[in-house]
Amino acid sequence: MSNLESAHIVVVGSTMIDMLTYSKKIPGSGETVIGDNFITGFGGKGANQATMARRFGVNVSMVNTLGDDVFGESTLANFKAQGFNTDFVRRAPGASGVAPIWVEPDGTNRIICVPGANNAMTEEQSQSAIETLPHISVVIGQLEIPQNVTAAAFRTARSMGIRTILNPAPFAPISKELLEVSDWIIPNETEFASMHPAGLSPTSDEIIQEFAQSLNCRFAVTLGQAGAAFTTLDNQVIRVSAPSVKAIDTTGAGDAFVGAFSVGLALGLDDATAVRLGTECASDSVTRLGTQSSYPSIEQAKALLARVER
Ligand code: RIB
After folding, report:
1. pTM for this one?
2. Pocket of ligand 1 contains residue 45 by CB under 6 Å
3. Which of 53, 209, 221, 281 could form a disulfide with 256 if both were Cys (CB 3.0 to 4.6 A apart)?
4. Is residue 27 part of a domain?
């Protein structure tokens, strides 16, 4: 078993309260439909990735700003209950982030994020977190907080020899400053095509290789049921398949991949095994409802780790 206690993942990222509505039919403009089920839960791509990582028993620090509302209170309590370091979680006046989500019977979703206090994060906050938190293995970021805040964290991490992982979701044009300090970029197929200057999807190894070379980064592209494709240090593409499962809710599956993959890197697993850990956890998560509520328990996560390490 790898040394879980010495790994430390820092997530500089978002929190949301997810409001998930399950419905056979998604309403058109001006239409009302009757849905089947509704749940609320803790979400936000940053918090989801932190949660997935923490399920393995590694140290996790969350860097975020919450609103001064009841959602901020409950999110902070959830962080503490999960055992996150919250030294760099701040509060700001106003609303915390929220995400209304519609899920269809095949498990696909539509999400509107309203970032609220996530947008109050500052460069000083993220930079001092990376300078202060001890023995960091990996820093993760997404695109639900201001990009300059993530870039400040990544730049500081780079200067300290710490690896950085950018999950470019939800897609927005990415600043040159942020791209330059991202070691790994983990997009899904749609995000890859949105990032690509010619709008190309990751349909061939050559497309992925050429894009990785032009950005001077490593890619791990998530491909849904087809698993993932990643670039090696010498820019070859290796494909990792995903277990075949029946999906009921894909919300947060990409975040499960990122959180688990980062744990793999932090533990010093080889890249293919880290990607496999990501695909195993993402596939597992789509078999349960909700976002963080769909992630494997501590016991299940450790069993998945033991399986890929075999
Ligand atoms: O990736 C899923 C997440 O996207 C949800 O938890 C929602 O909050 C949005 O951030």
Report:
1. 0.97
2. yes
3. 281
4. no
What is the rounded CA–CA span in Å between residue 213 and residue 191? 17
Residue 175's domain spans which residues? 4-14+43-95+117-309
In a domain, 23, yes or no: no
Q: Provide the domain count of the chain.
A: 1
Residue 294 CA, ligand 1 centroid: distance in Å: 12
Alpha helices of the chain — where are they, by DSSP H?
45-54, 70-82, 123-132, 147-159, 176-180, 189-195, 205-215, 253-266, 271-285, 298-309
Residues marked active site are found at 255
Mean pLDDT by 10 residues, the chain (310 residues): 84 98 96 97 98 98 98 98 98 98 95 98 98 98 98 98 98 98 98 98 98 98 97 98 95 98 97 98 97 97 95
Residue 219 lies in a domain: yes
Instruction: Answer yes or no: is the C-beta of 255 below 6 A from any ligand 1 atom.
Output: yes
